Amino acid sequence: MDKQLAALSRLKAPAPTEEARARALSAALQSFDATEKTATLAQGIEESPRPSSILNRVWSTAMNRKFLASSAIATLLLVPAAGFVAIELSRNNPSGGGIAETPAGAVQDLAVKPLPKPTSPANVETETPAQYAEPAASPAPQSRTSDFNTDQISGLLSKDAPAALGAKRSVAQAVPTPPSLKDMDRQRIADTESDERFPESQVSGVKSVAAEPVSTFSADVDTASYSFVRRALMAGELPSPASVRTEEMINYFPYDWAAADTADQPFKATVTVMPTPWNAGTELLHVAIKGYDLAPAQAPPANLVFLIDVSGSMDETDKLPLLKSAFRLLVDKLRPEDKVSIVTYAGNAGTVLEPTSASDKRKILAAIDGLQPGGSTAGAAGIQAAYDLAKSAFVKEGVNRVMLATDGDFNVGPSSDDDLKALIENERKTGISLSVLGFGRGNLNDGLMQALAQNGNGTAAYIDTLAEAEKTLVQEASAALFPIAKDVKFQMEFNPARVAEYRLVGYETRALKREDFNNDRVDAGDIGSGHSVTAIYEITPKGSPAVLTDDLRYGSEESVPAAQAPKTGDELAFLKIRYKKPDENKSALISLPITDANDVASIDKAPVDVRFSTAVAAFGQKLRGDPALTDFSYEAVTALAENARGTDAFGYRGEFLRLVRLASGLSPH
Questions:
Q1: Phi, psi (5° rounding) for residue 504?
Q2: What domain count does the chain have?
């Protein structure tokens, strides 16, 4: 018997459902009321309603109301009510021996009866909650004293106890088994991400140099994609391939590339050519530039307008509360000569703070702390109001920037991407730029964020933690606020005598036409103080067994004639960078031949930052499902990154290694 009791003590009761909780409580309260009516009163006590009886009637009525379908409200009411009932029972029982006698079968009958439908006031239609609906047919009578019948208990005490758990259960056990917390969390993530929108783009394919010798693209210093990837992996899910932009993952990390010496020529390129770690027979052409880093004394004054989404969807811990904390960090970084204004939008746009010197931090922080969520999202009206405020405090020869902080959508007013892009393009001509900070889950329109930032001569970042806010708005404040060049474009021309094929890693959404490179009317990416940009090509040398395309039988008009071929045979390619200074509209050109002098014999001989950025590039391609990385495992990515971790002052590279391990564990392969 002791062994049997011990076995029973180890059994775990099935998790109760909200329906079971409601029924049990209602049955208990109704049974108690019935007991009071039939119990014999002690001599000298006048029959009158007890406080517990009044509570029972109020509770029973309330439980049948539609608004108590919420488990959170029911729980808040149930706990104190149950305690009060227990106290009243022990205090008022004349015999002191527990609950007064109840007519036989009363509790049993109540336990299986559905709760009565809620009554409605006249002429008011109400809907009965599904959990309180009448069953289609009454179940066959079974034992109601336990969730397990006698046969099940006997089976559980036998050697075949696990098998007995699969036996038929009583009426109380007919309720579907609730999903596990892990399953619920995964479903929540799936439902949330299904509402988020990312621009679709095809992975860059292999190009034949004979047919397309020139590659042109816009610079990109956005970092939002890396934060999207981190958020998904930390929640136990592989990220949506559309959310992965490999170039943004690469450019998320700080690198120690050689910087320009003066602002007159704001870039210096670092080029490395090395064997590809994931594809034998090809090489990586790695190009990195770093912008001139302004000293604090050189930074111009800033006129900043915080355009803050306070719509109802921002009422979540990772949205408006995190946003407030992020802007507090930025305000603390500003100088007395900088100005701050605040515009909010939710239904209508409104000015919360007129242009205020950053020296009055108390006033600015008080305005931030007072923000409250509520209403719909009049995004376009908010943007226009923010630009108007920026114009009123315009700083000539300074930085004039609107910083839009939102969970990513605009559902009131002109909200198409084209309408908003046109608005931003027009305002950009006045010298006011726009940056976008995304917050939260579930409502994110990444395509719109990217369009606004690109057309506003600004950057797009996604802030999922306070640490990310600190990185974006404090550590990289100069890069985020103070541009050193605008409309930065890259063009790479490959030597067909040396290179058969190439493939640009990432930058799918930043591709430009060949003729766009010299067209100063074509907008491109902006680079801030100290910003770095890295681009990686996978190239296939002429004659390599890894060449995928056959030579053309009749040649091509795009092929370089022998008479025009470079005089020196050691050139692999020719790099050109075109840019404009922040206050100019005519572009300047930087050019650099890429030769055998840039080649290293093995990837181990490459600089640490080159190797680490290559590991990030491999990770991004794998997450996107790039077929070129099919045979390159996550373990290989980890090994490549671990050997190039370097000093890692802020722990970003250590975090990257953790994300790779998480992706490896979540990968179905």
A1: -85, 130
A2: 3
Distance of alpha carbon 425 from alpha carbon 26, whole angstroms? 63
List pLDDT tens digits, range 59-110.
444 444 443 344 444 444 444 554 544 444 444 444 444 434 444 444 334 3
- Residue listed under structure tokens 């704001």: 266
The answer to whether residue 606 sits within a structural domain is yes
* Helices 224-234, 652-666: inter-axial angle, 10-degree rounding: 50
| Contact between residue 306 and residue 342 where contact means Cβ atoms under 8 Å apart | yes
Which domain range does residue 399 map to? 300-481
Q: Please give the C-alpha separations between residue 319 and each of 110, 193, 325, 445, 458, in angstroms, as whole numbers.
A: 46, 16, 10, 14, 21
Residue 286 contacts residue 614 (beta carbons within 8 Å): yes
Residue 626 near residue 559, CB atoms below 8 Å: no
Which run of H or E residues covers position 368? helix 361-369
Q: Please, where are the H alpha helices in 39-160?
A: 51-63, 71-92, 106-112, 150-156
Together in a domain, 228 and 322:
no
How large is the angle between the packed helices 608-624 and 652-666, nearest 10 degrees?
30
The pLDDT-based confidence of 479 (bands split at 50, 70, 90) is confident
Helices 224-234 and 446-455, packing angle to 10 deg: 160
* Statement to judge: residues 86 and 28 lie in one domain: yes
Nearest residue to 438 (alpha-carbon basis) of 388, 477, 472: 472
Per the CB < 8 A criterion, the answer to whether 458 and 401 are in contact is yes
Average pLDDT over residues 624-644: 95
Asked if 193 and 242 count as a contact pair (C-beta separation under 8 A), the reply is: no
